[in-house]
Write a structure and sequence with these properties.
Layout (H helix, E strand, L loop, with lengths): L5 E6 L4 H4 L13 E7 L3 H12 L4 E4 L15 E2 L7 H8 L1 H25 L10 E4 L3 H12 L10 E3 L16 E4 L3 E2 L2 H14 L3 E3 L4 E7 L2 E6 L2 E10 L10 H4 L3 E10 L4 H7 L5 E4 L5 E5 L6 E5 L12 H11 L8 E11 L6 E5 L2 E5 L5 H16 L27 H14 L2
Parallel strand pairs: 1-17, 2-3, 2-12, 3-9, 5-14, 12-19
Antiparallel strand pairs: 4-8, 5-7, 6-7, 10-11, 11-12, 13-16, 13-17, 14-15, 15-16, 18-19
Helix pairs in contact: 2-6, 2-10, 3-4, 4-10
């Protein structure tokens, strides 16, 4: 580890946890029987639990770690419309009518999160700041322009092109060749959002038992028996909301989700004028490289939070500091002498078809595989799944009947990532 780039108060834990420490829940006895048992206390699990509990179903959430310990309190806080594939690719796979409905679900998810935060009064710094997506080569800018011209009018959403000559109004960097602005995309503090969701779930009667890993799920009559560290519990319905942390207790789902490490650093506090120069409109920022980077100002606009995929399966955030810092100063050379106060990582649940998935397998319900857009999609699909289990017609989504593919020889260990990352590194550098 390059200690010269570390601030004296450096921590290898999420920046978000300083303001919102991991919750300490009241210890509860494991009930003998519940109507709904949910595995995972992140956005998916808690949104599902909130819907089932508020609609009169006794609900228990089981969490192997502390509540929200995984991706829900570790992400970068960027909120988007989320569906990775464009209309052309979706139409090729599913036909034009289904493709439009799928894309609309992404729009619905973004709108739904903003409405939920407002209606529930969750204090999480939610702001519709927009997203700037930079073209890392001139060719990529031309592709952006072409795709925008072919975009259906009913999916316009106000997206507009920023030519290179006007780029300084979006970002204080010369590393891009223009880009696109998505004005409806948003940002929030993910740990505060999770805490607000947790508080509302508890207030609605959801029982949450953390540090209680599920080791086995067994079909029993019309329901299930869940074996845990604290004993067994009977449940009529079971929900799995573990995404990038899906384990061997649900092997069918594990074979379909690819855990990919995502790494983030936070800089030390900066001068206000410097942050205004770097990110003048407070956008969240991404670019067109296949090896993703994403960054933004902190909610108080005193730091830059910079994330990306800089390792294969490394879980030690102390080892990802240097490559992230190097990536940061390539974009913002103004920060060459800036030190890092926090470095952390988490797992993103990716899928082989680049699509989120929700449904049921052998009676076990699931929603997962958000492909790096988990705030909006996990919230939305978690809530929809909860509504479905509560018997509400609005729980239906256009993703319910989609096949959830895997690959031969894949059992949850992404052995193929190394050659894939090398390929994308070369593609980003030479062929974009």
């Amino acid at each position: 580890m390059n200690t010269s780039i570390l601030a004296p108060d450096y921590k290898d834990s999420p920046y978000w946890w300083d303001r919102t420490p991991r919750p300490v829940l009241d210890e509860i006895e494991l009930p003998e029987k519940v109507e709904v048992a949910i595995i995972g206390s992140g956005y998916t699990g808690l949104h599902a639990a909130l819907q089932t509990a508020r609609n009169g179903r006794e609900t228990l959430v089981l969490e192997a770690q502390e509540a929200g310990w995984g991706g829900s309190s570790r992400n970068g806080g960027q909120v988007s419309t989320s569906i990775k594939l464009n209309l052309t690719e979706l139409s090729r796979r599913f036909g034009p009518e289904k493709a439009r409905v799928i894309l609309q679900e992404g729009v619905n998810a973004l709108e739904w999160v903003g409405r939920f935060v407002r209606e529930e009064g969750i204090d999480c710094d939610f702001a519709q700041v927009g997203r700037f997506n930079g073209a890392h080569t001139p060719r990529q800018f031309q592709r952006m322009k072409s795709h925008l011209e072919q975009r259906p009018e009913d999916f316009d959403s106000g997206v507009y092109l920023v030519p290179p000559a006007e780029q300084s109004g979006e970002i204080g960097s010369n590393c891009y060749h223009g880009g696109l602005v998505y004005p409806h995309h948003a940002s929030l503090d993910p740990a505060r959002y999770h805490q607000g969701l947790l508080d509302r779930a508890l207030a609605s009667g959801v029982k949450i038992k953390d540090r209680c890993a599920v080791s086995r799920i067994e079909r029993q009559g019309n329901g299930f028996l869940l074996y845990t560290d604290s004993g067994t519990v009977q449940a009529k319905d079971v929900v799995v909301g573990t995404s990038g942390y899906t384990g061997s207790v649900t092997p069918w789902q594990k074979r379909r989700v690819i855990p990919i490490g995502s790494y983030i650093i936070a800089t030390e506090e900066l001068e206000e004028s410097l942050v205004d120069q770097l990110i003048p409109k407070n956008r969240v920022i991404t670019d067109t490289r296949k090896l993703v980077v994403y960054y933004r100002a902190s909610p108080d606009r005193k730091r830059i939070l910079f994330g990306g995929r800089v390792s294969l399966n490394e879980t030690d955030p102390n080892k990802s500091v240097a490559p992230l810092h190097s990536g940061l100063i390539r974009i913002f050379p103004q920060l060459a002498s800036t030190k890092v106060t926090h470095s952390w990582m988490g797992f993103v649940g990716y899928t082989f078809d680049h699509m989120p998935h929700t449904g049921a397998r052998d009676g076990v319900h699931y929603a997962m595989g958000y492909c790096g857009s988990g705030i909006s999609l996990s919230s939305y699909f978690g809530a929809k799944l909860g509504q479905k289990l509560a018997g509400l017609p609005e729980g239906r989504t256009s993703f319910d009947d989609l096949p959830f593919p895997t690959r031969p020889m894949y059992s949850g260990n992404p052995w193929f990532l190394a050659p894939s990352i090398l390929y994308y590194q070369l593609r980003d550098r030479f062929f974009s």
